Amino acid sequence: MDKQQIIAELSYKAVRSSGAGGQNVNKVSSKVVLSFNMMQSTALTAEEKLLVAENLKSRLTVDGILILNCDEDRSQIRNKDIVTKRFLNLIADALFVPKERKATRVPKSVIRKRIKDKKSTSEIKKNRKKPEL
């Protein structure tokens, strides 16, 4: 995954942000909407596209476009930085492949120790009873 090439393929759109901000909110378009067409991307290989599509299938549109919004800050530039970092983290997490787990056998010494502990606990409980006469 080449970050610079992916960033070059991103498209940004500035729209009016909702919420508090007074009269300025009606004039300034500070909310940033990032869209990334994953299917037409040249920065990702075919295997990477399949992996991202599988891991982010709930966030992709029908056309395979990933859309992220950011209106956390009043500054459009800061919102653009935030949404770009969020996008890169999302793609990196989607491309992460966990290591395959190797099944292991329980060692005989562990089994012996467990049985020995059970027997000692059983003896302790048996000795708590009143002796039979």
Automatic annotation (TrEMBL):
PANTHER family, sorted: PEPTIDYL-TRNA HYDROLASE ARFB
Family assignment from sequence similarity: Belongs to the prokaryotic/mitochondrial release factor family.
A UniProt-annotated Pfam family: RF-1
Listed NCBIfam families: PRK09256.1
Top-level lineage group: Bacteria
Protein name as catalogued: Ribosome-associated protein
The Prokaryotic-type class I peptide chain release factors domain, residue ranges: 16-32
